[in-house]
Amino acid sequence: MVYATAAGLCAAGASVCGKTALDHEMVHALFSSAAAPLLSRLPLQHHSVLVVLQAVTFLSVFLCNAMMVNLQSKALDLCPSVVAVITNSSANFFFSAVLGWLVFGEPLPLQWWCGAALISLGMALIHRSQADVEEKKKVE
Fold first, then answer.
1. Contact 19, 26 (CB under 8 A)
2. At what angle do helices 24-41 and 46-78 cross, to 10 degrees?
């Protein structure tokens, strides 16, 4: 399950990088205030640095997706496919929301929390049923 959860985190990271990479104004807003002291010392033009940062975030989409596929493959080797896929998808959902809230200031309303609770309940039921199936296999 650790690999599947990490795969979900990588997928969420790819989403954040993708959203950032495709919006020049987003890159400017995110990196300008944080990197202002550093940017003022560089001989390059401010615009050039932002284009490079946008390219790096674009390439990070592919890196995050490659890591996600690798981790998900390991998860599929170590646990039942249903558990690996559900865990990855749920982790992606949670991490995407939290990163969206942290990085982009996206709101997480009560409706989201209710949905997250239902997803968590569903995950618990699936994991429990898989444990029961494995226990029955050991008995037989």
1. yes
2. 120
pTM over 0.70: yes
Render each residue's pLDDT in the chain as its tens digit; 140 residues: 899 999 999 999 999 888 888 777 777 676 666 555 665 565 555 667 777 888 888 999 999 999 999 999 999 999 888 888 888 988 998 899 998 888 888 899 999 899 989 988 888 888 777 766 666 666 66
- Chain centroid offset of residue 39 CA: 28
DSSP one-letter code for 109 = -
Strands (E), 6-99: none
Torsional class of 109: left (φ above 0), alpha (ψ -120 to 50), beta (otherwise): beta
Find out whether 60 and 19 touch, Cβ atoms under 8 Å. no
